[in-house]
Amino acid sequence: MITATALTKLLNIKFPIIQGGMVWVSGAKLAAAVSNAGGLGVIGAGSMNLELLKLHILKAQQLTSKPFAVNIPLIYSGAQDQIELAIKLGIKIFITSAGSPKKFTDYLHSNHAIVGHVTSTPLMAQKCETAGVDFVIVEGHEAGGHNGRDELTTMVLIPQSRKLVSIPLVAAGGIGSGEAILASLALGADGVQMGTRFVMTKESSAHQNFKDKIKMAGPLDTTLCMKETIPVRLLHNHFYEQVRDLETTNLSTSDKQQALIKLLGSGRAKKGMLEGDLKDGELEIGQISGLINDLPTVQQLIDQLEIEFEACRQKFLVS
Ligand SMILES: Cc1cc2nc3c(=O)[nH]c(=O)nc-3n(C[C@H](O)[C@H](O)[C@H](O)COP(=O)(O)O)c2cc1C
Question: Which is the closest atom of ligand 1 to the Cα of 118?
Fold first, then answer.
């Protein structure tokens, strides 16, 4: 059985497993399935307008009576409205990302919510604790989606962050098996957040074309790009090649930034991940995609993670 930790206690969940909030991929169906299976399901508000967010929250409340959270990326201008709506609808756990942990933590606490924040260095993790968050998620360079520029891997982030923070610490980036969960706990984490692995479940709303492409992906098929604008780890395709070619031109940094923003345009992520345009869409996914070639239900996945965790634990208990 995957160990209970300070995180499971704080969030009132069975397993120290958080399903990362993910644009276009993590709606009510995925979040509720993860919560029903004993983890913490998270609705990714980053790709939702207020109306859609409301629908997903109400639907998740119908599908599960277990705790679930809403992820609010703070780079979007509508973050405050999303927070106010989610509070009104009774959400009690928030995971903020892509911005300052100071921005909404006090406000969320004054509304009796638990707050986690995603960051990518040990020092920033310490700042999250100082800002008053209840748990901190440290996300390594391996991770899918938007990422820090610092290139610290999960392996080094966990123990160095553990030294600096006393609140529950959650490891993210490159975690896709029970063995990796055990390793994260051994290094000092109180739990894990997984994104890529949950994209590859029946309940995720990723398009089947995207899922099929992830199945075929090898360990070298993703790259962290757009480091001069908004760093993001992408699965290689035609769109990625256009980004890569632009990044290696001789343009000045500001001209490159402008050109990248123009190339990115709007709707690329939706096109790729939700609508399945494998050529011109943006396909966000982590390095661990190289290991994943099945598409279980969330319950089957959690059962498998438990088996792997326990088998690995037993292996190291002997002698
Ligand atoms: C398709 C995709 C979309 C993501 N979107 C978001 C997001 O909207 N907000 C956020 O905080 N993190 C986002 N992430 C990061 C995940 O929440 C999680 O931290 C990350 O995937 C963990 O690394 P892994 O992919 O190696 O498991 C996204 C990741 C993926 C793969």
Answer: 11
Instruction: Determine the straight-line distance between the first and last CA of the chain, rounded to whole angstroms.
Output: 21
Tell me the per-residue pLDDT of 214-236, one tens digit each, with 9 for 90 and over: 999 999 999 999 888 889 999 99
Record the pTM. Answer: 0.97
Q: Roughly what angle, to the nearest 10 degrees, separates helices 122-130 and 154-164?
A: 40
Fold that domain 6-205+295-317 belongs to in CATH: TIM Barrel (3.20.20)
CA-195 nearest atom, ligand 1: 21
- Verify whether ligand 1 is closer than 6 Å to residue 23 (CB atom): yes
Task: Judge if the beta carbon of residue 71 lies within 6 A of ligand 1.
Answer: yes
Q: How many residues does the chain have?
A: 319
- Amino acid identity for residue 266 in this structure: S
pLDDT in tens, 93-147: 999 999 999 999 999 999 999 999 999 999 999 999 999 999 999 999 999 999 8
Where in the chain is CATH 3.20.20.70?
A: 6-205+295-317
